[in-house]
């Protein structure tokens, strides 16, 4: 069965739609988590959600809904601990993470379910989605994107400087709780696509990729959503195109594709940042006659526009940088600055 | 200008702040009148930052009261009248943001939810960038700016909301001299436009000529309130600043909380 045949199947079309909306929604909320330096929050919520899934298995209700409820409770608890805690907030979070994972595995055992059942939630099972699952994913994905984009100025202000935002009259606690709840909902939406253990990757890796090239918050957010959407759809197609007999879960291919996109933009980002640093103007300090030497023994090399040495603005003239020197042309000779 | 007859903008009465059971500010009265430029000075740990945080509502009062523009702080909703520049080493977060984006968030006090910025918003942001002399860097990433330029971005952010009253918490800490001059020029523009300024500073440097009233804190109390003092008079003699003084002995445990927060 080749890829085109596969695309004709209902289950594959459903999976592609779910992947696309998950890939757009997860980085949208992930950008705010990275801005608040909470990149691992998604991971924490994912661990807590394992208990939610297990409770669903134990009680016979839909694991998706119990996961949503428990993930939201966990996210709110993490937010409250973070806000009240004096220090060592990360330790408090770690306690919650491991409690969630251990509780989930234990309760799954009590429910008489094997590791296989839990496995499909930990690593995703996108090709077994029903129509209702797809509508659920699309609906929540649209909600998450609409809320994050609609409240972008407020969420940005709160994430980048909560004290300023509070003095400006924004309800900082409310917005932080909103981000935590949205993150929890995202985790449960992405649970079916990439699995609980890899959710955080889809929230963070696209942002890390996008910020290599972007210069502003908006462009980072837009770029991250693009990378997330591409990685989710591309990763699913890669997983589907393996030859018959080899079954690869789409979660890992989606995350590895996103990581490959990061790996390919990272060197460009390093180069851009290096160039910006080298070209930044030198501060123009008042000339007190001390740091101004004429190069006496001639300068064999003639500096110019394309001599290969970085030309850096320095006050009203240009310095050429090489071998730890800053040379400024001055009439017939060069000055050492 | 020293303004003994102007309307009181900030009125603090018997302000007492307790952090983790330890009184950090004890019974401080302070009145700042319209148009004044007040420097709040004192050694590290004397409580000057805590006082500003109490005046802006960031730090709950244990006792006493604060009125801003005649309204009790807890009922004060007219947030666009205050501009706050918090004590921060950097204006950058985990995600790149442009200078203009950071300054634009200062305009939120005047913007309604789910509305695009109006022409007035854009003009105010342009003007704020102009005042701090960073209009040419508007589209650069904040993290590419020097520390002093980032402080100017934070001032522009407060300015963008066009407030009447500014609180600045140590904007010059760790800022090089050319940037201190640029900061002082921006504050002079503000002051000349009639804004009231409360500036927390360990050292005034080029801003000394702007100050028309000094308030000196010592160990949680206002020790001096009057005409500007030289730094010599405030600190005695110049000595290297000791490390941060912790108001509360630091014992950390995951779920421990402090009444009154951190």
Fold and architecture overview:
- The complex is a heterodimer of chains A (337) and B (262).
- Chain A is of the alpha+beta class and 337 residues long.
- Chain A has helices spanning 3-7, 10-35, 41-59, 63-84, 89-110, 115-122, 131-150, 152-160, 162-167, 172-191, 199-213, 217-240, 250-279; strands at residues 293-294, 311-314, 317-322, 325-330, 333-336.
- Chain A has a five-stranded antiparallel beta sheet with strand order 1-5-4-3-2, with no helix packed on it.
- The model of chain A has no long low-confidence stretch (mean pLDDT 87).
- Chain B has a domain at 36-46 and 79-225: Rossmann fold (3-Layer(aba) Sandwich), CATH 3.40.50.
- Chain B has six helices and ten strands, in the order βββαβββαααβαβββα.
- Chain B has helices at 48-55, 99-104, 119-131, 147-160, 177-192, 231-235; strands at 8-19, 22-33, 37-42, 63-68, 71-72, 82-85, 165-169, 196-200, 213-218, 221-226.
- The longest helix of chain B has 16 residues, at 177-192.
- Chain B starts with 7 loop residues before the first strand and ends in a 27-residue tail after the last helix.
- The model of chain B has no long low-confidence stretch (mean pLDDT 87).
- At the A-B interface, helix 2, helix 5, helix 8, helix 9 and helix 12 of A face helix 2 and helix 4 of B.
List SSEs of chain B in N-to-C order: EEEHEEEHHHEHEEEH
Question: What distance lies between the first and last C-alpha atoms of chain A, to the nearest angstrom?
Answer: 69 Å
Helix % of chain A is 55-70%
Number of strands of chain A: 5
State mean pLDDT of chain A (0 to 100 scale).
Answer: 87
Per the CATH scheme, the topology name of the largest domain in chain A is: ABC transporter involved in vitamin B12 uptake, BtuC
Instruction: Name the quaternary structure.
Output: heterodimer
What is the architecture of the domain at 36-46 and 79-225 in chain B at the second tier of CATH?
3-Layer(aba) Sandwich
CATH class (first level) name of the largest domain in chain A: Mainly Alpha
- Biggest sheet, spatial arrangement of strands of chain A: 1-5-4-3-2
Query: What is the averaged pLDDT score of chain B?
Result: 87
